[in-house]
Amino acid sequence: MPGIFTISLDFELHWGVFDKKDRQQRKACYLNTLESIPKVLALFEKYGVHATWAVVGSVMAKDRQEWERWKPVIEPCYAVEDYSAYAWVRKNDLGPAYRWAHFAPETVSAILLCRGQELGTHTFGHFYCLEQQAANEAFDADLKAATAAAEKFGCRLSSLVFPRNQFNPEHLRTCFANGIRVVRSNPSSWFWSPITDKSANPVRKIFRTGDAYVPLATRRTSYPLAAIQARPGEPLQLPASRLFRPWSPKMPVLGKLSLRRSIRELYAAASQGECYHLWWHPENFGDYPQQNLLRLELLLTHFQKCREKYSMESWNMGEYASLLNEEGEMCKDILQYSS
Questions:
Q1: Measured over all CA atoms, what is the biggest interatomic distance in the chain, rounded to whole angstroms?
Q2: Residues 167, 185: Cα–Cα separation, whole Å
Q3: What single DSSP character describes residue 79?
Q4: Could you read off the pLDDT of 94-143 as tens digits, one per residue?
Q5: On the chain, which terminus has fewer CB atoms closer than 10 Å, C or N?
Q6: Domain around 190
Q7: Got the DSSP string for 244-268?
Q8: Measured at the alpha carbon of residue 227, what is the angle toward residues 181 and 302, in degrees to the nearest 5?
Q9: Under DSSP, is residue 306 helix (H, G, I), strand (E, B) or coil?
Q10: How far apart are CA 178 and CA 174, in angstroms?
Q11: What are phi and psi of 233, to 5 degrees?
């Protein structure tokens, strides 16, 4: 079985950081993000890369009126109200003057015009599964709202990325009931396990950051196809391998180290016939788009070499769904082939 290279992108605009950052201060970042996405798509087309764009459902609305029609019938109930996108909207303007921060249906349409690109979901309202106090009905309502948004583009959602990678088995079952067949899960190392704000600590952050530059995990970041988990009534869990960290003028040397680490891991996955799953936020390119696009192309040239030497393939998350039979179990013939 040849190695598989997968890319997933968490496309959120301001919906991903409304509880943390000032909207106006990030205007240039968001405008640059929207301008850079067509260039990312051009690179994916040039190098034959398939990718999943996990889009916050709210981004797909054309304006506040459409967003109001789509939003969930049950809002999440968080211990910290500031985590709620709906509470934030009630206090802030979503008018045309701020469209660049919240709505980009034209960009979603452009993504779908490109070969190998999948529309996934990052939930409708950037839903924090482990920060919630209310029952699971709110998450179910969120997924139904995301489904309605995707239907506008003629898409049926099958892939999901959890905000902050927060989830538990109940959330997986709710995903499956709503047609989701693949989710991105966390790397196996302890410092990548799902956390809430209460469980966050500096040690975990240090290990997460440090592992981008030097090996701190006990296992390699790629994995055999047979290791992808699926239980009856739950989606496949497709572990992330590495966050593709953005370039920064403050840390040029560390930027080279992180890129080199990803390239080495990509070659290791290709030579071992394993899966390598890279992810980032399109907004990560917003501060220094030119430098980040150059880094991405350099990485993709190495993927091209892996394809030529090791026959490595590129799959989006949804393409893994073909591994599921109707009972939600791994197909035995593929398991045997990938062993």
A1: 56
A2: 9
A3: S
A4: 999 999 999 999 999 999 999 999 999 999 999 999 987 766 799 999 99
A5: C
A6: 4-338
A7: -PPP-TT-HHHHHHHHHHHHHHHHH
A8: 90
A9: helix
A10: 6
A11: 80, 10
